[in-house]
Specification:
The complex is a heterodimer of chains A (146) and B (405). By secondary structure, chain A is mostly beta strands. Chain A contains one helix and ten strands. Chain A has one domain. In chain B, strands 1, 2, 3, 6, 7, 10, 11, 12, 15 and 16 form a ten-stranded mixed β-sheet that branches. Chain B has a two-stranded antiparallel sheet with strand order 4-5. The chains are: A mainly beta (146), B alpha+beta (405).
Chain lengths: 146, 405
Amino acid sequence: MSTKTAYGPARLLPGEQIRISTNPDTEPFWDAAKEHRLTACQCAKCGHFRMPPTPYCPECSSNEKNWPTLPGTGTVFSFAICNKNPANGEDYIYVPVVIDIDGAPGARLNANITGCDAEDVHIGMKVTVEWTEIQGGWVLPNFRKA
Amino acid sequence: MAWANQDKTAIVGVGATDYYVRGKSWPRTINDMAGEAILKACADAGISVKDIDGFAYYSTAGAGYLDKFDTALLMETLGMPHVSFSATLTSGGGGCVGAIGLATAGLVNEDCKYAVTVMSLQQLPQHRLGVVFGAAAPNPENSFLQPSGLVGPGHLMSVLARRHMHLYGTTQDAFGEIVMATRANTHNRPKAIRKAPLTKEEYEASVMLADPLRRLDFCLETDGAVAVITTTMDRAKDCRHKPAVVHGCAHGGQREWGRAFAWMGMPDPHFASSGHKFPADRVWAQTGLSAKDMDVALLYDHFSSMVLMQLEDYGFCEKGEGNDYVLSGKVRYDAATQGGVNGGVPVNTHGGNLNEAYIIGMTHVVEGVEQVRGTAINQVKDAEFALVSGGPAPLPTSSLILRSA
């Protein structure tokens, strides 16, 4: 019993229903996203990547950070297929994905994917970043099938 | 090396309210239900509620998801004359059984004489766990998770289940077998919410909430309260029932698991796991026992897939072999022989969170106590050792081994 359900196109959740908040540790990531630049928190001392951004490097304890511009591509690490918009309970096919980010080993992002049917999303699938405007003038990195 | 506190304490009293479908406990209040559970646990132990002088909570002293216990208010309500131990494990349901270790710490340190661990849960519409993450205001940490629409614990857990299926070929059939096998244990339990036997067809017809997990892979949403009393072995001997001896207990977890499905940063093989390898290794080292020595396993089953992954993390089978282990019937309880099936260890003889009730893990502790007392409804014959686990959740997770006296 591992039959594939035909879900149809994977949609991004509407940006106007999404809110985030930031603090000084995380804001550089979101500031970069506003410029459509995908970054991740990197230790300026030892080069270790960590996401979400935290005040100290868990490897070397440095609090100095780099925010390098990454290629904006990645690979699906895992995912779920959901069928109700969490904001209103209406039928809505979306696929939360966990993405391994290219150029930032060990760092992941949780996002939605589009550009294919939900049932065609698979682990190992290559993706490129797709920018979604959300509340408060922020921009969210989502992903599209590469 | 054996645990310094091995067999020094015991659970001597258990008490519970009725179990209610989500929201149906109203107009009872959280503290009304907590009080009933505590008073019943004291009666079961044969002590006065006024003998309680310790409070060992988990879930950051949470009472459900939005309320908090307050020791002073419970004293004011129940009349304990003084308290000399009041502490909690952090995070959520992961620490459930670790609270018995916390109680043990208070007892062996001679801070207190009788410690109570209590959970009371009331899921009024605004308090539903199923939506509580999604409804939470954004904070800088969850802003890296919430926008993806992973709004409930089941959505989060399905991402881990998917990875397990990818790595090891695990099937939804195994998740279904866990639900059906544990459902078979509730038909004779008066307080259970779901008692009707479950067929494969009914399971497969269950709506997919977060593919690969169906509604029936999600645990019940229930209201109610459960309390247990832990005391020292010398006092336990004077209590009403045979003591359920605390033989091993551990809580914690390793960094690779960390915030677990609240960050999704776990590397393989930790990602597709229950996060229980760390406390599992600790309790096995504390006791010199292993999975095969257990007579019954009460595994926190908020989601069926997490039972499978705990079976692996505790060593009932090898990592990646949970699918075949489950499908060979090894989690089932055979009432005719009062034992396991096909060489397995019976899992969740009370029906678990999936079928009996969900009080954030406390029903598993009650079943563990009843099994080693020899008074369980679905009694495993001559049960000597019961494994009880806390929730696969952001750390701490926790493990408890109870031994018959």
